[in-house]
Amino acid sequence: MGKEDDRGEEYLFKIVLIGDSAVGKSNLLSRFSRDEFDTNSKATIGVEFQTQLVEIEGKEVKAQIWDTAGQERFRAVTSAYYRGAFGALIVYDITRSDTFQSVKPHCDTAVAQMLVGNKCDLEDIRAVSVEEGKALAEEEGLFFMETSALDATNVDKAFEIVIREIFNNVS
Ligand code: GDP
Ligand code: MG
């Protein structure tokens, strides 16, 4: 049973991870939920989402974060994946322009979406500038952040900004 706060309210937000294969979606999630990084991460099999508890303004919020089970390789991510999502992290790899070119927001129900340029630890082989990322985010009305799942830069922050923005929109 889920815990309720003193007013009996429960907050459960579905958040989806979107982006090309190998941009680091699964590692962003494992960094956020377990503070782990996996260098040979394989396609997630069987696990559809992880639930992470976050406290906002004294309220317990459950973030249910969905990761694709590798379907993005086959462009087979279905509408069920996006259905009911309140938030989205749209991830590209700052070292691969093709992953930036394919960014597009898909999530009609989302009240908070963030464009995430991951692998910012790889500055020496950067292919997408911070300015390009910012400009696209502004054009599409998204939050923007560069992250590294490897060294943990901005990972918690990115998820927390999205969760807080959803909270502000629903409460
Ligand atoms: P997904 O396919 O989008 O889920 O990507 P994964 O999380 O499986 O990561 C793909 C590859 O990129 C793996 O080899 C990871 O170790 C690597 N990777 C993920 N995030 C980072 C990061 O922030 N920095 C670096 N240097 N490598 C990363
Ligand atoms: Mg993955």
Features:
6-stranded mixed β-sheet; binds guanosine-5'-diphosphate; alpha/beta; Ras-related protein RABA5b-like isoform X2; 171 residues; globular
Question: Could you give a short account of the major beta sheet?
Answer: 6 strands, mixed
Structural class call reads: alpha/beta
Say what oligomer this is.
single chain
Count the DSSP helices: 5
Bound molecules: guanosine-5'-diphosphate, magnesium ion
Low-pLDDT segments: none
Shape: globular
N- and C-termini, Cα separation: 22 Å
Number of strands: 6
- Computed over alpha carbons, the radius of gyration is 16 Å
Order of helices and strands: EHEEHEHEHEH
What share of residues is helical? 25-40%
Mean pLDDT: 89
Q: Largest sheet, order of strands side by side?
A: 2-3-1-4-5-6
Approximately what portion of the residues adopt beta-strand conformation?
Answer: 15-25%
Family: Belongs to the small GTPase superfamily. Rab family.
Protein name: Ras-related protein RABA5b-like isoform X2
Organism: Camelina sativa
Description of the structure:
This protein has 171 residues and is an alpha/beta fold. The protein has five helices and six strands, in the order βαββαβαβαβα. Strands 2-3-1-4-5-6 form a six-stranded mixed beta sheet, sandwiched between helices. The relative contact order is 0.21. The structure holds guanosine-5'-diphosphate and magnesium ion. Magnesium ion (MG) binds next to α1.
Give the helices and strands, then pairings.
Blueprint: E1 11-18, H1 25-34, E2 49-56, E3 59-66, H2 79-82, E4 87-93, H3 97-101, E5 112-118, H4 130-140, E6 143-146, H5 155-170
Parallel strand pairs: 1-3, 1-4, 4-5, 5-6
Antiparallel strand pairs: 2-3
